[in-house]
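Backbones bend. Our protein:
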Amino acid sequence: MTTEERSAASPAPGPDLRTAGENAMRAAMPGVFPDGPISLRDGKLGEELVDIGTTSVWGSLWAREQLAPRDRSLITIAMLIALGAETELKTHVRIGLTNGLTREDIAEVIYHSAGYAGFPRAVAARTATREALGE
């Protein structure tokens, strides 16, 4: 794919990123968000973080067409394991299942992470994944 084709396939900056982000979130988490604009603000410290995530992560990254949502889920789960970000991992395990990952796929990512991120991170990821799956 050429640079021009990538630019054309990627969402443009601006208000469209918010819409692209909301659509990507709805696709990844069906039934969680109502139709129309999404507001996750709660009036507390740092409430704008969700808006930043909606546009920069979901709109700029998850809405891109170059990787399938399943592939993005594999990458995201692996990175969250490496970072030790168990809270986000729980959410992305469920998103991964929505995006076509199997429980076995997720287990393989955890096993593989033991060799690269370390055994303690893999154990923590296994614990978080079990919690996310209700085990």
